[in-house]
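Dear colleagues,

For the upcoming journal club I promised to circulate an example of a predicted protein-ligand complex. I picked one with FHN because it came up in last month's discussion. The inputs are reproduced below in full, followed by the predicted structure.
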Amino acid sequence: MRAQWFSEARFGMFIHWGLYSIPGGIWRGREMSYIGEWLQACFRIPNREYGALAARFNPERFDAEQWCRTARDAGMRYLVFSAKHHDGFAMYRSRVDSYNVVDATPFGRDPLAELAAACPKYGLKLGIYYSQDLDWHHPDGGDPGPESPKNHGMSWGNDWDYPAHRGKRFRRYFEGKAIPQLTELLTGYGPVGIMWFDCPLTISREESGRIVELVRKLQPDCLINTRIGHGFGDYGSYGDNQLPAAPPEGMWETPGTLNRTWGFKWNDHDWKTPGEVLSLLASLAEKDTNYLLNVGPMPDGSFPPETVRVLRETGKWLERYGFAVYGCGANPFQCSFDWGYVTVEQRPGKRTRLHLIIREFRPEIRLYGLEEVVVRCWAAAEPECPVEFGCSGGRCLTIRLPEWLRARLLPVVTLELACRNA
Ligand code: FHN
């Protein structure tokens, strides 16, 4: 199945990197409160001025191998790179538009090409983010207008160097830039695992469908997220940082931030702790949903040190407990638990396992309504330790957690199941 890798992967790295990373949320001494990659729109910076940032883009510490190594060591299985965000600046070599990282910056290298070469070495699938609709640099880029409810009250148009016809001549942008650039991306970088689209505000149903056809034709195995618009796509994108209430039908993913922004901001220090990130990962895993966790690299091309610290911890945890996340299915109980999360590991030809990921230690945990019999229960540790359990009437299973688990970060307790009459 072409999507199998995605449902097993569970954890990916999102990367937002572009000209906006240089000012990092500060423009002429003023700070923005919104997400960093929206700098141009928030300060209504004319293209000539914003584009001048390109002359300063020279990230001497950029190292695609290092990025991929960090992702792999964090336990991530795929990476999605912002090849073009809403500012319209291509972070790859585009022959279609010279407003790109190779032609317009002293850096002169193609980070996407370097990432495409590095990803397979670190067992990562490559995904490409492309803002198919909003493009603030192209005179005909998408925008349904500030009054449109689709714009959620954000008035990013019209009083900046934003022609009044913007959005109405979307077709010109679509045919002249979006389709040719997507063709470049789908033909120039080897196998692409995901085309990640975003913010379908202006695009018509026919145009979204046209992109889907293009992707299918050029990269039949590539997955498309539902933010392509109009109900198309192979898997669902939840809203940013959104947690599903119950396991959904089909394949889903939640993109999330490590602090409060996607693009780097100098003054955003509101970092999630490793425990918070792991709780989110586990809570998504028990809803059969992938977690695409964002990194906003700094202008010099390195990852913020706090990011690296957190990711190192997620990697350590996944190295030990990854069996409870990768390839596992959703919590089979009709409820969630205040102590943590449950996943199911189906093992073809072998006994099914339930994994309890303990966020808050309890001396005793009770599970009601389990159809199967528990034949074994242990805490995954070194060495593996048996955990006491008992069954009372009404199919109530009591698990007594050993005290030493209290000090562990999200420890996992596993139950092996057998059919009642087996
Ligand atoms: O507007 C973008 C935003 O900048 C960022 O890229 C996120 C990532 O999911 N998507 C949009 C908002 O949902």
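Two points we might discuss: The chain has nine helices and 18 strands. The chain has a mean pLDDT of 94.

See you all on Thursday,
B. R.
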